[in-house]
Amino acid sequence: MTTRLSELSEFASKTGYRARLPDDRGHIAYSDTEHATWQALMQRQLGMIEGRVCQQYLDGLERLALPESRIPQLGEVDRVLQAATGWQTAQVPALIPFDTFFDLLANRHFPVATFIRTPEEMDYLKEPDIFHEIFGHCPMLTDPSFAEFTATYGRLGKAATPKERVYLARLYWMTVEFGLVDTPAGRRIYGGGIISSPRETLHSLSDVPVHRPFDPVDALRTPYRIDILQPLYYVLDDLTTLHDLSRQDIMGMVHHAMALGLFEPRFEPAPSSARASA
């Protein structure tokens, strides 16, 4: 999240993607190629997540009833989210400032970049596109625990200092983007960054990365890189842990993490051409 938001000026000039704008009726027109890309991504990832994602995500996906053959309109998604948890989407460019991001979340608006990757970038995309945001994240926003935690996170971020926000970014990365949860059926995925990535989906549940019980202070202290498969995942014992966390003194935990300092990274430094880690 930090790299996605804090380096807006650097990447706005490098990306060839531009958000699609709605017409006067709020409808966004996509090309046949863009719809075909959505369909290919949907078909690939629906098969990939079977038996690997948590039930709350599956329930949300069923409620959203996302079309497979075309990119959904944001209004279709909004109707479901609003009825479930009071959330809705907000159309944004690929990269937005911290202030905008936190303000949107605090008001239960989830930012969605209204473009889709090209067929040449099906497997990895630096910018968050509409498939990542809608397929990866929106089903979980129908879950009350997840939705409440995300809104609380936004409210805290609005009031945080720049340094505090960098620490908060790590908490978001280790939960909303790359979180795992233990369930009666086994270990499952709930983080949108995993769910929208075929390689990360397989990697996250394999024996290759480290899996640690979720501890919010530890998560706040854990560096990450966006351009590699994650070497470490934090595992919730239940999704209600996020709801409980939203009622605790998260900023107190941030200050404790700041006093303790960061853990040693579990990865090599990023090359100069890649975005910085957080």
Automatic annotation (TrEMBL):
The keyword Oxidoreductase applies. Its EC number is 1.14.16.1. Coiled coil: none annotated. Transmembrane segments: none annotated. Residues 1-278 form the Biopterin-dependent aromatic amino acid hydroxylase family profile domain. It catalyses: (6R)-L-erythro-5,6,7,8-tetrahydrobiopterin + L-phenylalanine + O2 = (4aS,6R)-4a-hydroxy-L-erythro-5,6,7,8-tetrahydrobiopterin + L-tyrosine. It comes from the Bacteria. Keywords: Iron, Metal-binding, Monooxygenase, Oxidoreductase, Phenylalanine catabolism. One of its GO terms (molecular function) is phenylalanine 4-monooxygenase activity. Pathway: Amino-acid degradation; L-phenylalanine degradation; acetoacetate and fumarate from L-phenylalanine: step 1/6. Belongs to the biopterin-dependent aromatic amino acid hydroxylase family. This is Phenylalanine-4-hydroxylase. The gene is phhA.
